[in-house]
Write a structure and sequence with these properties.
InterPro entries: Lsm4 (IPR034101), LSm4/Sm_D1/D3 (IPR027141), LSM_dom_sf (IPR010920), Sm (IPR047575), Sm_dom_euk/arc (IPR001163). 30% of the residues lie in helices and 28% in strands. The two termini are 55 Å apart.
Length: 152
């Protein structure tokens, strides 16, 4: 989650991208997706030898080809501040909820306590439950499939 939030925050900022093949791309981040595919604008591409350069108005880089990204410190600071603000908000929400948490858990437990108890269903004359029916009961062994020999 952190790398993607960092990239979202870095939109419209300059960055350097080095690919696994050694090429580098310097440009401004336009957009990114959850696979770290990115779009750059005003790009300068440098060959892996560092002896050839290309200027491009824009380019698309597949996330799986990226070796690393270099992002300005100001963007990293913005993400840190945002994470700290979120953790403060979470702490405050939990503090405000604190008194009711055990009461809420008790209510949840009472609702889910009868989760596996099925009601007894009556079937055709003769007491059968029908094909694929379930029997309820308090035997402590849980619910069992209907007895063999049930016919339609």
């Amino acid at each position: 989650k952190l790398p993607l939030s960092l990239l979202k925050t870095a939109q419209s900022h300059p960055m350097l991208v080095e690919l696994k093949n050694g090429e580098t791309y310097n440009g401004h981040l336009v957009s990114c997706d959850s696979w770290m595919n990115i779009n750059l604008r005003d790009v300068i591409c440098t060959s892996k030898d560092g002896d050839r350069f290309w200027r491009m108005p824009e380019c698309y880089i597949r996330g799986s080809t990226i070796k690393y990204l270099r992002i300005p410190d100001e963007v990293i600071d913005m993400v840190k501040e945002d994470a700290q603000a979120k953790s403060r908000n979470r702490a405050e929400l939990n503090k405000n909820r604190g008194g009711n948490s055990s009461q809420n858990q008790n209510q949840r437990g009472a609702r889910s306590g009868n989760r596996n108890n099925f009601s007894i269903r009556s079937g055709p004359a003769g007491g059968g439950l029908g094909n694929g029916g379930m029997r309820g009961g308090n035997s402590g062994q849980g619910n069992r499939p209907a007895a063999q020999g049930n016919k339609l």
